[in-house]
Design the sequence.
């Protein structure tokens, strides 16, 4: 949807425990107290709180709706037998997380250790993902988006070339 010549991302909250999709890219300024406004279109799915954790894949911070984080990640009772790998995963998934409440203006205070991990200065890029969103240093976010475009464009070209060679595609 376009408003005033710019795209307005939409948030889809699915029914019956299905995944929330956060869509769009936003860049917001961090204030002197370390507060940043969560994009307005992301807030309804958060129900006033979120779970932050350092990404294990990228140099960013993941932000999850509390209920989604709880349902998506390892659920084990304290007396369950865990493999050593499960035990390490539990440390990575739970010991390195922080639950935060949004203030009445829809802001969170992003702790210094999370900003440092992601290389975030005075601006934060919010990137939508299925089920959660990510907080990035803006130039790193742009580089990740460009890398993703390049990888998938190359993959599409490869499929088109293979289809043309096999006679199943349009030359």
Sequence:
């Amino acid at each position: 949807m376009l408003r005033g010549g710019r795209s307005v991302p939409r948030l889809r909250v699915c029914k019956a425990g299905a995944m929330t999709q956060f869509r769009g890219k936003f860049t917001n300024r961090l204030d002197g107290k370390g507060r940043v406004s969560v994009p307005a279109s992301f807030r309804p799915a958060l129900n006033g709180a979120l779970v932050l954790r350092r990404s294990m894949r990228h140099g960013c911070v993941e932000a999850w709706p509390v209920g989604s984080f709880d349902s998506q990640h390892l659920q084990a009772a304290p007396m369950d037998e865990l493999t050593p790998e499960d035990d390490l995963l539990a440390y990575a998934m739970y010991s390195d997380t922080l639950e935060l409440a949004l203030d009445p203006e829809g802001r969170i205070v992003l702790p210094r250790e999370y900003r440092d991990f992601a290389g975030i200065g005075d601006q934060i890029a919010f990137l939508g993902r299925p089920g959660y969103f990510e907080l990035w240093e803006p130039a790193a976010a742009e580089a990740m988006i460009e890398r993703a475009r390049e990888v998938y464009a190359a993959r599409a070209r490869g499929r088109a070339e293979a289809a043309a060679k096999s006679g199943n595609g349009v030359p």
In short: Residues 1-18 have pLDDT under 50 and may be disordered.
